[in-house]
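Fill in residues.
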């Protein structure tokens, strides 16, 4: 399972940070940070979700008020 995060869309509500420790706060930029990710296109970051963190990562995506976070299954289908 993979997560993608659009940093440019993020408005810094940090609800994702409260749901999953894969996100942290960048208070200087007023944006969340997807830890251990790589930038796959301008402002979009991606990483694999550890099996034991899948539920938390899904919750992080669901609570984002601006839909800056997407989750994909192992077949590449977007599930959130």
């Amino acid at each position: 399972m993979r997560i993608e995060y659009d940093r440019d869309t993020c408005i810094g509500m940090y609800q994702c940070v409260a749901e999953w420790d894969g996100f942290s706060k960048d208070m200087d930029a007023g944006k969340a940070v997807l830890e251990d990710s790589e930038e796959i296109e301008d402002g979009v970051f991606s990483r694999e979700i550890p099996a034991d963190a899948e539920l938390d990562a899904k919750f992080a995506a669901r609570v984002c008020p601006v839909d800056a976070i997407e989750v994909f299954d192992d077949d590449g289908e977007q599930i959130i």
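The chain has one domain: 2-72.
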